[in-house]
Each structure stands twice: as C-alpha cells, then as structure tokens.
Write a structure and sequence with these properties.
CATH architecture of the largest domain: 3-Layer(aba) Sandwich
Shape: elongated
Structural class: alpha/beta
Strand order of the largest sheet: 9-8-23-22-21-10-20-19-11-18-14-15
Number of helices: 22
Radius of gyration: 27 Å
Distance between the termini: 44 Å
Number of strands: 23
Strand content: 15-25%
Length: 529
C-alpha cells in the first residue's frame, strides 16, 4: 500500500522538484529514499536529495515558542511551519508503462508517495536467468534491488568508500554473482587474502566468512605467490606463481617509479640496457654487480644512473617468487585458466608491500592485455562465434596506486580503463581514496557503488562525469558507516541507496547452486529442441 508523504509545490526539471511534506510523515523522510510522483499520464521515479525547513510567515521565527509553550509550539508546527523535500527525477513511466528518460514535468499538487516493493521490482527487475543479481534492498524496505551483471561487466566499475564501510564484502558479493551467473571470468588480485578462502569478519571473536574458492570449488582457482601462507590457511594452491626476470619489462618498472624513488635518468639507463639485451635486460643488470662501471660504458649509460638502478632493483632477488629462470610458465597457466572461463584469485600471502603488489599486478595484466588484443583481432578477422574471447573482469584494490594521474598515462591499467572494453576486458576498482585516481578514468567508469565518504575531495572525484552532482553529495555523506551504498551508472536504471545483502549462511545456500556454463546450457537446449 502506498504511503502518501506530501504534494508537489514547485521546482524544475534541472534543479529537482519541491515537495511539501505532510505533518504526520515528516519523521519518515530522509535523503536517499525512493519516491513516486504520479499525475494523470506519467509516474516519475525520484530520489530525495535534500530537506529544508520552511515557514509561511517569517515573523514567527523572530519569537519562537519556548520549551514550556507546548500548545503554542504544536499549533505553529501544524499550521505555520513545514518541511519541504527536494526530489530529483531519475526516470519515468509513460502512459504505456514504458521506462523513458525524464523530459517533461508533472503538474502542481501531484501526490507524492514512497515507492512500494512492486515499484522497486518494476524498475530494477527480479533475480532470474537474465543476469540480474540481488545486491541489497532500499533502507527500511524488503524489496530486492537487482544489478544487471551483463552491463556491470561490460565496462569498468568501481566500489568506493572509507575504510571499514564494507567495500570488501560488497566486492565479494558482486564477484559471487558474476561467477554464479557465468557472466565473466575474473582475475582478483587478493593483496590481503580476503577473497579466495575463508576471511575474518570485523566482529568480536573468531567470526569467519566463506571465500569464493569455498563457494565455487570447481570454478575458482587459487594462484599463490606464497604457497606456505596459503597452506597455513587450510588449502593448497592450484598453482604456485613464479615470475622470471625475462617477464619483467621497462614498463613494469615505470609503474614502480614512486615506490623505488627512481629518477628519470635511471629509467633512461634501463631503456639503454633493454636496447642491447632485449628481454634479458634485468638479468644482465643484476649479474653485473661487481662491474657496474664497465657495464655502463658498454651500453653508453652514465655509471651513476646504472648504479642507482642496480641498487633499487637488487631487492627483487629477495622476493622468492622472482626467479632468474622459471621451470614452469605460471603466466601461461593463468591464461589457460581464464580462457576456460575459470576465475582466478591471486593471493600474495606475506608479500603485502605495495612494491610487490604493483610489480606482480602490472606484469600479469600486461600479459593479459597482449593476449586479449590478439584474441579479439582474431575474432574480428574470422567472425566465428567460437573465436569470441571470454569476457574478463580484473579486480584491483588500492586502485589509486595504479590509476593516479601519472601512472594512468604510463601503465597498462590506465589503458585498460580507457579502451579495453572493446577487447572484452574491464576493471573492478576498489578504493578508499578516489581523489587519488585520475579524473579522466573516474569519469569513464560505467557503474559506481559508493559507500560512506566524508572527505570533500573524494566525494567530488567519485561524482566525476555525473550530471548535476549536487544532490548526490548530501546522500553520500549521510550514508551509514556500514553496509549502505549509493549505486548509479550503467548497470542500474537509476541511482538508488541500498542496504547491502548480508554475506551469511542464507546467502551461501542461495548462491551455491550449480554453476551452469554456456556449453552445458547449449547441450540442454539441443536435447529439448
């Protein structure tokens, strides 16, 4: 049953509509709530973006009633002062019940009511076989809000929020939905071992939640840089990752420029080494430790630049997963898993420094970029369905380290965020400091899930590319510190605030139905044809 909350008294299409709130429903109103404005031919679906106290006689405010004048105070509240809500129209239904963009406005004094469960289902769909996945419910409602996973994985997406707001749990929910629906293969750079196996929940006592490998053992593989750490957590990795020196390029070192405090002259020296020794440039540098001056003269570089580069990169020898020669091709194994539609969680174990994270993520993603560009070009040439690449989504945390204004221009992650959609690769960036990410990239992110942010720079950055963002600022700042998020962008028909789905036993039982691959579905269809 609809709850009437007020009537429309003014506003505009660009600034939003002003709604005078009924006296008996004013305490139920809050920013971010979903409301409906109905006239004779249309229904407008809107978000409350601001609230304001009004009076019909400003002289009343000169002598406000005291705390002891209760009767006078109640009389004034009912007759002379009132609350208005600014609501922003997002989408509307025409007379044929079709969803269309908002291009006109309702008439004065239209009824305004809270959205019902059926309104939510009408706009956001229902969880079924069409890649709709329940991400949560509107606050104080029980209607499921579904996200379109096909659209979510088509373009790069982002999950943002302060530390402790539940970004990791929200990310895990979405990844579970993508794996269950076989929407895309996933590569997850799991810096803190939170996605593959069990992870600790932020509650008192020993409270753990299941990881993606536990939920989907046949569809998720664990790749580990630190196999001993993975075994201590109760499972052996499917593949132990090693990176050979010849797999590391100059572009990978550029991504580490800030971490290593490398001067540009040292990078220029690296290019001189690579020009002579090709893919073996790193081995040649590290092998010349006792003869750096002679080595510099051989390639025509400044000895001090070579010495600085050698000192910075010498630390690679302390990383057990970095080897001079690798007996197994871990990178090819990873590509093989992804090509089969498997999702891969890459665990870093005890290698939790930013240096390791940046190095490994850049090396692996660069190889994936080269592979998917080649596969897409082959598909475009043959135009055969069998050659079409499997869609891939790469999940990275601490995204500002890869996508800051400097790195975004020089590293592979900036390239993927800007142009890899046409090559079947997208990013899922998870970050607590969106202001550190290049604004050009933020404006191109298709779908955003924003938990509570209080820093003005972060709020401004996360709303890059959004038309008329003023109303969203108040909503983001007013979100609860746990399990609430504002969702907007390509994967949902309109922005909405949700209370995220709980990641618990009920979720496990719902999500852990057999995952049906495309080939299995085609086989079933052929049997009943």
């Amino acid at each position: 049953m609809k709850t009437n909350i007020g009537i429309l008294v003014g506003g505009s299409l660009s600034d939003g509509f002003a709604v005078r709130i009924n006296y008996d429903t004013r305490e139920q109103i809050s920013t971010g709530k979903f409301v409906i404005i109905s006239d004779d031919t249309h229904r407008f679906f809107c978000l409350i973006t601001d609230l304001k106290l009004e009076t019909n006689n400003p002289d009343i405010l000169l002598f406000p009633p005291t705390a002891h004048e209760q009767l006078l105070r109640k009389t004034i509240e009912q007759q002379c002062v009132y609350t208005t809500a600014l609501v922003r129209p997002m989408i509307m239904l025409d007379e044929y019940n079709r969803m269309v963009p908002v291009k006109n406005i309702p008439t004065h004094f239209c009824d305004v009511s809270f959205a019902t469960d059926s309104d939510i289902a009408l706009i956001f769909g229902q969880e079924d076989k069409n890649n709709f996945f329940t991400i949560g419910t509107p606050p104080e409602m029980h209607a499921p809000v579904c996200i379109n996973l096909e659209k979510f994985t088509e373009r790069s997406s982002g999950i943002f929020g302060k530390t402790g707001t539940g970004k990791t749990f929200l990310t895990r929910l979405l990844l579970a939905g993508v794996i269950k629906n076989n929407t895309a293969a996933n590569l997850i750079f799991d810096m803190h071992s939170e996605y593959g196996l069990q992870a600790r929940q932020e509650k008192q006592g020993a409270c753990f939640v299941k990881g993606l490998k536990t939920l989907f053992p046949d569809h998720v593989a664990i790749f580990s840089l630190d196999p001993q750490a993975t075994r201590r957590r109760g499972s052996a990795p499917d593949v132990t990752v090693t990176i050979a020196y010849h797999d590391i390029t100059i572009e990978d070192i550029i991504a580490l420029q800030n971490e290593l405090n490398l001067h540009t002259t040292a990078l220029e020296a690296a290019y001189l080494i690579a020009a002579r020794y090709k893919e073996n440039w790193l081995s040649a540098l590290l092998d010349s430790g006792d003869q750096l001056k002679e080595f510099a003269n051989t390639i025509g570089a400044h000895p001090e630049s070579i010495a600085a580069l050698y000192r910075k990169l010498k630390r690679l020898e302390k990383l057990h997963f970095c080897v001079k020669e690798s007996t197994s091709n871990s990178l090819q194994q990873l590509l093989d898993y992804l090509n089969r539609g498997m999702s891969v969680v890459l665990e870093f174990g005890n290698y939790t420094s930013s240096f390791c994270y940046l190095l490994v993520a850049n090396v692996i993603t660069r190889v994936i970029h080269e592979e998917y560009v080649a596969k897409t070009e082959k598909f475009l040439g043959s135009q055969r369905a069998a050659d079409e690449p499997q869609k891939l989504m790469i999940t990275i945390e601490e995204a500002h380290k890869f996508l800051n204004p400097l790195a975004a221009q020089q590293t592979i992650f900036g390239t993927i965020a800007r142009e890899m959609r046409k090559y079947y690769v997208s990013l899922l960036v998870v970050d607590q400091r969106p202001s550190g990410i290049d604004t050009e990239i933020l404006s191109q992110i298709g779908s955003k899930l924003v938990a509570q942010l209080t820093d003005e720079k972060d709020i401004t950055s996360v709303l890059a590319g959004v038309s008329n963002p003023t109303g969203f600022r108040a909503i983001i700042a007013a979100l609860d510190s746990k399990q609430q998020a504002l969702i907007f962008g390509h994967a949902v028909p309109m922005p909405i605030v949700i209370q995220s789905r709980t990641y618990d036993e009920e979720f496990y039982s719902t999500i852990c139905t057999p995952v049906q691959t495309k080939s299995q579905q085609e086989l079933i269809d052929s049997l009943f044809a």
